[in-house]
Amino acid sequence: MRALKEKYSFYRKLFFKSFVKDRRIYIFPTKIGLYYCGGIFICFLLAMTYGNSLAYTVSFLFFSFLICVCFSTNFSLKDIDVDFSDEQVLICGYQDSGKLILANHAKENRYSLEFDIKDLQVESLELLEADSLKKVEFRPRLWQRKVLKIDRIKVYTDFPFSLFRAWFYVRLANRIYVLNEPVKDDQFDLIEKESLKGKYKQGGDQFSHLREYQGDNLSSRLDWKRYSYNEKLYIKEFSKNLAPKKDLQLDLLSGNIEEKLQKLTYQIIEMTKVDQDFSVSFGRRTLGPGKGEEFKKRCLIEIARYRGDV
How far apart (Å, rounded) are the C-alpha atoms in residues 123 and 140? Predict the structure, then answer.
């Protein structure tokens, strides 16, 4: 059975590479459209059989309407571009939706756009305004830790009247990293967590250095004097406020491998919230030390890729 699936996948990819062109618009009647075409054909046969001028007129009007709808449906996908943002990490129950970027380069609005992406469930878009960008949310069809390789997106519409469906494919080389829901570890202890949230008692603490303000909730330690010189915000750091680096180790956590990774995900998120330096150890491999959103993303991507020490 596995061999048959691999063979099917190979021939499917070969077909798409050989015959399906990137961003070329294809069109075909829907089920309703086929019934409509059948009705026109019957009406035309009656006109031919009985020589009825009214039947000829009705057939011509219905056929003209069909051609107009066909052109309109095909036109509805013109000048639309679609892409992902950078590598995205989706975490069940925490950051559970990603963004698909749509661009309409035309001077007219586009309506009723839908998307088909393997392993992803994407919201439909009722209106894409002229000459605009819009982000559409997507979620995994199945929440399971894995790396999704996005190599093709299908964009389609049956606007107007649902008589025809037009579609095109966009080839990509993106990856979506999916993680299970983080699990709180009761034994996890953040070093001086309260002080790191900004509840400092400077008192006799010894001044250490200044660092650039990064959106921290530490307004009480802003250096306004320095701001008056160069209009840049700086935070005062004191010696007792500099928490030591924390080493997060996968092997020290309890549970099976998936439970360990869920707990590690929670720890990484919490350490990033309090802007503390930390490193992450996956057996023989270690990331960091580091901190901030970029380092958090690196660690979470490594969790999605993790397959044990190999």
Answer: 12
